[in-house]
Structure formats: C-alpha cells, structure tokens
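Input for the complex:
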Amino acid sequence: MSGSPLSRFEMVIGLEVHAQLRTESKLFSSAKVSFGDAPNHNVEPVCLALPGVLPVLNRRAVECAILAGLATHCTVHTRSVFARKHYFYPDLPKGYQISQFELPIATGGWIDIQVGADAEAVTKRIGLTRIHMEEDAGKSIHDDAVAGSDATLVDLNRAGVPLVEIVSEPDLRSPAEAGAYLRTLRSILRYIDVSDADMEKGNFRCDANVSLRPIGREEFGTRTELKNLNSFRFVEAAILAEARRQASILADGGEIQQATMAYDAATDRTRVLRLKEDAHDYRYFPDPDLIPLEIGAGEIEEFRRALPELADEKCLRFQAQYGLSEYDALQLSEDRALGDYFEAAVENHGAAKTVANWMLRDVLKALGELEVEIGDSKLTPEAFARLLELVDSGTITAKSGQGLVSDLVRAGGDPTALVSERGLEAVSDAGVLAAAVDEVLAEYPENIEKFRAGETKVLNFLMGQVMRRTQGKADPNAVRELLAERLEG
Amino acid sequence: MPSPLGTLAELRSALDAGTTSSQELVAQALERAEALKGGLNCFMGLRADAAREEALAADARRKRGEVRSRVDGVPVAIKDNMVQTGEPTTCASRILTGFVSPYTSTAVQRLVDAGAVVIGRTNMDEFAMGSSTEHSAIGPCHNPWDPTRTAGGSSGGSAAAVAAGIVPFALGSDTGGSIRQPASLCGVTGIKPTYGRVSRWGLVAFASSLDQIGVLARTAEDCASVLEIISGHDPRDSTSIPEPAPVYRDALERGIEDIVIGLPREYFAPEGADPAVLATVCAAVEELERAGARTREITLPHTRYGIATYYLIADAEASSNLARYDGVRYGLRARGTVGLTEMYERTRSEGFGDEVKRRIVLGTYVLSAGYYDAYYRKAQQVRTLLRGDFEQAFHGCDVIATPTAPEVAFRLGEKTADPLSMYLSDVYTVSASLAGIPGLSLPCGFHDGMPIGLQLLGPAMGEAAPLRVAAAYQRSTAHHENRAPETV
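Predicted:
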C-alpha cells in the first residue's frame, strides 16, 4: 500500500441514501405501492401527470419521515416545504419531481457506527446534514430484448413512491466506514419499521461524494459524486476505485474536476457521467399545489416517546440485563426481530446465555442455510425454549438438539413430539452404554494402551466412536464415566 | 335562430311552472350555439347527444318530483380547461390534441351531480394565457356586442356564450382576471371567488397559486346560486379551503345601507384608463351611494407592482406546470423525430402557441439559478405586500370598487403584436388574484356601444360582500339586462 499514490491521501466521504418508505400508497396519490406487478398497473391520474391532477400528501409517509429523523437524532421541523425539481425524462411524468429543498423535514442529526475489527471496534459518530422527503421516478427500460432496439419502455408503477433522502456530513474516512454507516442506517430504518431498506430490491440506494486531501490537511479537496451504488459491496468497491483514480491524478500533479461518476463493477473502475458545467439547473421552487407541511411540536414529542429502543441502546441493555458479551449483544441487537426473538425465548427458558449461544450458533446457521430471515422461522421462541429444556433435562443430547434446529426452523412443529417420533431420547441405560463401550474398546484395543501410556486425548476419539454407535443419543457424561472406568481399570 | 335563453332564475321558474322542459332548453342552447358558431367561435366543441340524454333524464327526475337543485336540467357551458370523463380537454392547445379525460373535475362533477347539463366546452386563450381569447388553436372568439372586437380572455368563450344567451351561466377560470375581464368586455356578471373556495382538482393548471374557478352569468344572484353548488372543501386539492360551501342567499336580499365602499386612489388615476370607463364606473359608485352605501377613498400603495409581480409568478408556475406536455404519455407527439431531445423539442415547438412559449421561456428564466432571488423570490415578497395592502384596506371598508378593465373591448388583432399592452389589460384584476381575494365584475354602462364593467373586491372568504353590493346594484339598475345586439 505504501507504494500506491492513495497512501498519501485521506479519503473524505459523504453519503446520500435514498430509502423507500414503507407505505401502502404513493407519496401524493392513493395508487398502490407494490413490486412485481404488471408494468403501469399501479397508476392513477396523478401518477400519469394527467392535465388537472393535484398532489395530496400521504400522512403515513410523513410519520415515517418523522420517525427516521428522530431515530437519527435530527431536529424534526414543525414547518417544511415541498419543492419542485425540474428535469425532462420520460419516466418523470410531470417534468418535475416533488422533493424538499430549502426547508427539509429534518436536519442536523447523527448516528454512531462501529469502526474496526470485532475486538478493537471503536465507536465513531457520523453527522447527518438533512433528511428530506421526495417521490421516486418511474423506470425506463432500454433493454433491446424487452423494448426493441430503437425504443424505450416506461413503467410508472414506481413513479410517486415515497422516499427519504438521508444526507450525511463528509465524516466518513474509508470505504469500510461507508459500509458500516450504511449497515447502521439500514438497521435503524428497519428498527423503526419505516423502510425495508433492502438494497437488492432497490428500496435503499446510495450515492457517494468522494474527495481526497493530503494526510494532515484540513481543507477538503474537489469532490466527485458516485451515482447509483446498488449493493454494499459496490459501495465500498466503487469508493475505493474512485479514490484510486483521484489519487493517481493528484499524484501526477493534476486537478480533480467536479463531476458525476458511474462505477463499472466489471472493470472495477469509475468513469465520468457528466461534468459540473453540464449539470442540470433544476429550477427548484416551492410547489404551489402543496401547502407547507406543518407538524405540531407536541406531535413530534409523541413520536419521540413512541420511538422503539434502537440497536445501540438494546446492545447495552443486553449486556447489562443478560450478562452477554459485547460481541454477542451486538449480534443479537443488530436486527430488531432477532433481538425480539431472543428476548421471547429467554422469557420462556430463563437462561439467557444458553439461549444466546444456541441462537448465534445454531439458529443463525439454520437461517443462513435456508436463506430466510428470523421472521420467516417456523421455530417459535416458545418451541425453541422447549427444545433447550429437553437438552437441559438430559432428555436429548445437545448434539441431537442441534440436529433438530434446522428442521424446526424450516418446518416448525413440537420439539417433544419430534424427539419421540425420531426416537432421539438420550440413552443412559447402563447396560446399553456398557455394551457400546465394550464394542468400541474391542475394535480399537491399541487405544487402551495409548491411554494408559498417558495419551489421554484418545478418550475423545473413543467418546466419538461411542456416540456414533448410538446415533448421538448417548448421554455423554455416562459414556465418559464408563470409558474412564474401563481404561483406568 | 332560437331566441336567447333567460337568466338561471328565470329558467328555473319556467321549469318549476312547467312552461318549459330541460329538453327544450338544452335543444335551444345547442341550436343557438350551432347558429352562432361561425359568428362568435365561442365553443371548442359541443356534446349534443350526451346533453340531450341528460336533459331527458332531468325531465324524468322533475316528473318524479326529484329535482336535485336550482340548476337541475339547466344547460351550462364549461371552459375547455376543466376535465370531464370521456370528453376531450384541449385548453385550446394543439399539444392536447386527442386527449380524452378519464376523470372529472370536482367543479364539473358538482354541477353534474346537481343535475346541470353540460352542452359544451368554451373557447379560451391557450392554457388560459391571454386577455383576448385570440391565442387559441381554433382561432379567436368574437364579442357578441361587436364581432370585430375581442370577448376578452382568457375565459372569452364562456363570457361570450353567456352574453349571447346560449347558456344562462358558464364556468370560467381566473388566474389574473380571466373571468372578470371578459365578463366586463362582454357585459355579463362574473365572479372569481377566494383562492381555494372552489377545488382545482381537474382544472388544468396554468399558475397553481393563482388559478381559481368561478362563474359567469347574467346576474349576481345567478353567480351566487352556482357558486354555492361548486364551492366547498375537496380533499383532493390541498389548497382547498377546509370549509363547507357558503350560503349567499341572505346576503343577496339585504340592502347596502351599512356598506362602506373603498375607492382605491391608484385605480382611479386618470392616466391609467379610458376617461369614459372611469366616468361610467364613478357613476356606478354614485348609484351605489344612492342605494345607501357610503364611500371612502383608500390606498393600495403597492398596486403599481401588481402587473410585474403577477407575470413573474404566473409565468414561473406556468413553465413548471406545462413541463408535463412532453409527448410521452398523451396528447400530441411530433412525428418522425429521432431521439429523445428532438422528440421533446419538436413536440413542444409544434404543440404550443407563441404566447405559451413566451411564458414558458420567461418563467424558466425567472426560476433559473442566479435569477431566482432577483425575480421569483422578490415577486413573492411583493405579493405579501400586496396582500397586506388589501388586509389593511378592508379594516376600513367592506368592498372595494374599481374599474374591471382600463378600456372597453379592443379590436381583434389590436394587441396581439404587443404583448405588454395586452398584459396591461389585467392591470386592475391581477392584484386581487395575487392577494387571493374574491372579485366580481358586473356591467355598469356602455361606451361606443360596448359594455363597461365595475369590479367589486371583497376580503378573503368574503364573497358575500361583493355579491350583496352587486345584487343591490342590479335591483336598482338595468345594465345587466341589455342584450348584445348582434345576437338578439
């Protein structure tokens, strides 16, 4: 790294995130918000910008934006104004987008992110400049296969879908910080249930402003804006690629031109979309069809009181209340549904540490294998607690219990019934176990000598063999005692 | 040619008495419209078949004793900038060629629900931009009093249709005087209510913060009757006043002995208007004094900034509102273009007329980076001052009386080459639009055989005051009963 031009510079990064708000209807019409429907299915006169139509603000979208502002420690304003942002494009039916410009709904907040590897992670506070509400544009389809080689198709299902744009201060200093910021922001928006914040589905999109400055210098360099970064991986890769590009220009004594850039993942390079002098003049002005958005100070306070506990608070509480390690608490609190599941299971079972271990090891593994979220799990927290009780009481071995998690997550069911159905009750009958132990010792007589010669680790090998012979149902303590008896005998 | 129709009040009495039917009235209106088509050009299109069917249904209702309202079965015309399901709306523009609306504007829906029969859509200046109904894709509308002269605009077609006795009343829209000025020039009564009183849902936008639907009729009483039907809160218009439709009947019957009429010095300056117009308006004010009103001179100090402020704000909003006409989804799309930019440029070049293009260019400039503060923001500040002028003035008077227009109807073609002189036709009407207050124009005399209008302005939400004064005036005078000679 020391040889690369980039090592002489510090990155200065600010992110603009567009998050789709979770509402049933669009920001300014009663047209449905839904994905995967036939093109131009969810449209009304307002979405089509027919002559004479007028926008009416969606109350639920405002509530979502208020919550987003409060959860990110912004000042939510009692008065904000919608403005028109003009440009011509076929998927922008009115020829302008209704957004907020001079007076956005929220300004001046922050979020804390974890920077660095797990053990040495430190908290860094990232400033938020503003949050404003706006409507999405439609979708243009230029694909030759769909539209034909000389045509563009327009789908207006998405036109008018409510978004918040969340603009950070230029407080981020590396691609990894940018990634951490995005993950934290996503977690917050999901916690307060205002957005699915799913990058793959396009309802959490990111633009990045990137500049470099020589290490130690205060003032910012000239920045470029990276547009349409559609996955977490892309964001980090694109920022790095753009920083490298800028570094090589600066190292050669060149100047950065203010520009809008695109990232090409195939080549891992960024390229200029348009230079600043070609930038649109959006001709913002307050939308005369909409009155200023007035929110009572009391109402804002009500929303603040109704705000759920957020991930960082929950992480601290999990450590204090359940005695979890910081690492475990962090993992269990990152996702609100996971945290809720954990607490429900603890309530039914009692031993938080055990529940946490099983969740972080077996449940998360099962979810990963099945590629589902905790909310999709068929294993209820109550059934999960019963499963752990079966292990605690020795009815089944831990190994048997672990083997059941994946099936229960996928198909659900009563753990007790499943145990008897599959005959998984732990074997502690002395006669059965003694027979299995004797069989194993007869098969591996050399191990008896090894053990007696001080090579005690063969005990584990023999244990494993006994467990295999009993399909994992043998009570491990009983087996260990029996083996020790025979070997030392 | 069938004879002209009477006032709404007269037609209603005849319908109630059974001496006429809705079918007869609608047939008469349609025939008259057809007969005057060439001479006046006041309709964009008629909906004859649908109107006859609706008249039949209205008569059937009447027979069953289910009369819906005071306009049930009465023929009406609407300006071609209010949409109605299944009907074309063009705003007199080529760019909306072929557009048929899938929905109905609130104002028209309320009339339809009340049983009124829409016989057609009236001619107008393209997108309501103009003061003479000359900037129209189908050519100019002619004044029924003298076809060589303008009917005013932009609601010239609606004013002419009422003046010619084709319909007893019509809907118009007023952005800077587009109801009041043509009412004045055609010798009819027209009211622009308080901004937000009538829903703009389905009114094709010109300048959203100024546009307001209103009524043109023969009398103030008829204006009030129709306004009561079309007014009232509409959740689909965020700028709609959240109050039910007011009732004006009581106000109309009261005298005006306790009324104080403010006479703004700035509106009676001799250099501003034709002396004959000023003299006639002053005579009308004296008539009101004889009817018991008191008068006092007032001042509206920012009046001289009205025209500049109005054209900055209206054109800025228009440039934005008209961005949607891009050839992508409906209306005209230029043929044979290559690429997106050419499609936009050619569609909009071919689709819009010169005056609309002029306003789009002006409005785009006004909102441009670097000019916004100097023009648009400054204009909004002046607008606040103008509103303050009126608020202050209404502390000392109940209505304000002024001329509606500086002169009687001018000749067709007289001002089309000089946009600025055309813009000055609105000099007495734009301030009330900027302030959002109600304004009414009623006929108060003649000059050169052409009607002169008296403008009465009321405070915000206070349509009752000008309606009351106008009704009192019309009880004691007969100017509103004069019929355009060309059409008698």
